[in-house]
Amino acid sequence: MILELDCGNSFIKWRVLNTAAGGLFAEGVVDSDQALVDSLHTFDGLSLRSCRLVSVRTSEETAALTRILERTFGVLVVCAKPASEMSGVRNGYDDYERLGLDRWLAMLGGFHLAAGACLILDFGTAVTADFIDAEGEHLGGFICPGMPLMRNQLRTHTRNIRYGDLAAERALTSHAPGRSTVEAVERGCSLMLRGFVLTQMELARSYWGEGFTVFITGGDAGLVADVVPDARVVPDLVFVGLAMACPLS
Ligand SMILES: Nc1ncnc2c1ncn2[C@@H]1O[C@H](COP(=O)(O)OP(=O)(O)OP(=O)(O)O)[C@@H](O)[C@H]1O
Ligand SMILES: CC(C)(CO)[C@@H](O)C(=O)NCCC(=O)O
Ligand SMILES: [K+]
Q1: In angstroms, rounded to a whole number, what is the distance separating the alpha carbons of residues 83 and 96?
Q2: ipTM of the prediction
């Protein structure tokens, strides 16, 4: 079995692949290293042979998690590393090591699946967009605050915006102008994300006409997926790229 991890800023997405049987053994989302270990310990029959991970955390945090996994499960942990070129994709950053590794892996996965020009949109703690042309050239991208950051900034910097998670979820069943604080904020932020998607689509069309594939991924993909009905919603796009960047023998 292979343990795969995508360590984002707020959550660790994990899954265990059953190499022999082929397919998924288990998967989950946790908010700490300890919660990851606890989750994995709940599975009888877990027998990890190896582990590959991508992290956008500090190297200290990533090293700490690596140590815990190696000690607890006795596996070797392989971490995705930055590259200027891989699997036909050329990193477009002036300083390729600065490009977030989650973005890089989603780009490798997207270009592989599209086999052509693609726009990759990731809705996590941060929202990112990346443009890759048909030759695999990364034209660059955009980073902006995601839903959790937008909502928390409003909560933190105002005195009268306060509401619970349940009310937030209920508010997002419509995009009509809000008639309560929770509706006004949740729908307003959601419309910001949807507007962002439309702008990225315009830019992609200006480059490639209709000849490109749109990928949507990240925990909040569901908030925007219907804006682009033709988009491919691929929740595990980072994992597709992770397998390409870190093949295990
Ligand atoms: N099962 C889930 N577990 C955790 N978050 C979820 C889940 N489903 C949707 N979300 C939402 O997804 C968002 C987090 O996205 P995601 O997990 O892709 O990124 P992240 O790890 O927080 O950050 P990063 O952008 O660094 O990857 C939050 O707004 C969260 O509410
Ligand atoms: C933008 C995030 C936070 C998205 O997870 C991550 O890819 C990251 O930390 N990137 C480093 C900065 C950059 O990509 O330019
Ligand atoms: K991410």
Answers
A1: 7
A2: 0.91
Residues flagged as binding site for substrate: 93, 100-103, 181
Residues 227, 105, single domain; the answer is: yes
Query: Which one of 31, 44, 94, 102 is the catalytic residue?
Result: 102
Ligand 1 atom nearest residue 102's Cα: 27
Count: domains in the chain: 2
CA distance 214 to 242: 19
DSSP secondary structure letters along 217-233: ESTTGGGTGGGSTT-EE
pLDDT tens for the 249 residues of the chain, in order: 999 999 999 999 999 999 887 899 999 999 999 999 999 999 999 999 999 999 999 999 999 999 999 999 999 999 999 999 999 999 999 999 999 999 999 999 999 999 999 999 999 999 999 999 999 999 999 999 999 999 999 999 999 999 999 999 999 999 999 999 999 999 999 999 999 999 999 999 999 999 999 999 999 999 999 999 999 999 999 999 999 999 997
Residue with tokens 């343990």: 3
Same domain, yes or no: 138 and 28: no
Q: Domain boundary at 79, 111, 137, which?
A: 79
Annotated catalytic, 102?
yes
Instruction: Report which bound ligand comes closest to the CA of 237.
Output: 3
Q: What is the CATH number of the domain that holds 110?
A: 3.30.420.40
- 154, 244 in Cβ contact below 8 A? no
Q: Does residue 234 lie in a domain region?
A: yes
Residue 98 CB–ligand 2 contact under 6 Å = yes
Ligand 3 centre to CA of 15 (Å) is 15
Same domain as 199, residue 124: yes
The structure's pTM equals 0.96
Range of the domain at 26: 2-79
